[in-house]
Write a structure and sequence with these properties.
Largest sheet: 6 strands, antiparallel
Helix content: 10-25%
Strand content: 35-45%
Number of strands: 6
CATH class: Alpha Beta
Structural class: alpha+beta
CATH superfamily: Hotdog Thioesterase
Shape: globular
Number of helices: 3
Radius of gyration: 15 Å
CATH architecture: Roll
Length: 133
């Protein structure tokens, strides 16, 4: 399934996702607009993808809106422009107000980036427009 094409996501996507058992798998086809002058996928494109998919996981799986508090990324290899980028996120803990996740991004089967994310998770009432935190 594809993400919304609205806003910033529309500039970098489309992003796609599917369920494999209980795991969410995300991906996008990189192209020239994702590249840097060295011919590899720009770290900003990868970080935006990681931020989008981890927020999506929280909102889709738990029905709760969220906002990024922290996203700590590590670039471990270069992904070539034109590669399919795939990611798997793992939720480590979901509390009343916080979510903690890890995500790994691969290009052509090679690990290119890891990230640890912390999100502010809003109450179910806030997620449905009834206020609250």
């Amino acid at each position: 399934m594809a993400f919304s094409k609205d806003g910033f996501i529309g500039l970098l996507g489309p992003y796609h996702w599917r369920l494999e058992g209980e795991a969410y798998v995300y991906g996008f086809q990189s192209d020239a607009r994702h590249g840097n002058p060295n011919g590899v996928i720009h770290g900003g494109a990868l970080t935006a993808f990681a931020d989008t998919l981890t927020g999506h996981l929280i909102e889709h799986a738990f029905g709760r809106k969220c906002a990024t508090i922290a996203l700590d990324s590590r670039f471990v290899a270069a992904g070539k422009v034109g590669a399919w980028v795939e990611a798997r996120a793992r939720l480590h803990k979901l509390t009343k107000t916080l979510a903690f996740l890890d995500v790994d991004l691969e290009a052509e089967g090679e690990l290119i980036m890891t990230a640890q994310c912390v999100y502010r998770v809003f109450s179910l009432d806030a997620a449905h427009g009834r206020g609250g935190a």
